[in-house]
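Researcher: Go.
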Amino acid sequence: MKIAIPVVDKDLRSNRIAAHLSVIGYLCIYDTESQEGRWMKTLDLAPNMGELLPALERYDVSTIITKQVQPMALKVLVNKGFCVFKCKGDELDTNIGLLIRNELMLFDIDAAMEFAKVCGGECDDCKTDCETSSDS
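Model: Structure:
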């Protein structure tokens, strides 16, 4: 099984799970059979979020571990056949172990709505990574 996990970066904090999947972020794609991870810039995998799911499918990723996911994104991921799990804490290796031992919970709509409540349910209400990067 291959797992995609958004991480803070691919160098200094490559073992810290990022807040959410982002096209301008970083990913670890972990293969449970070889027990190896590959870290990459999400943009190196796909130029936008619309092309990220097909790119993950090409890498045979079937599972995603993340801290947060918007309700509509969760629906799209699940409809495309991905299993989306809610991480415990932000340690990459710990969460991979928890997943392998079946100790992580699947993200459900209620858990996804918690994030939507924080941001008011409107994407425009939140500062996005795109806004942050374009300001610099």
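Model: Confidence is low (pLDDT under 50) at residues 120-136.
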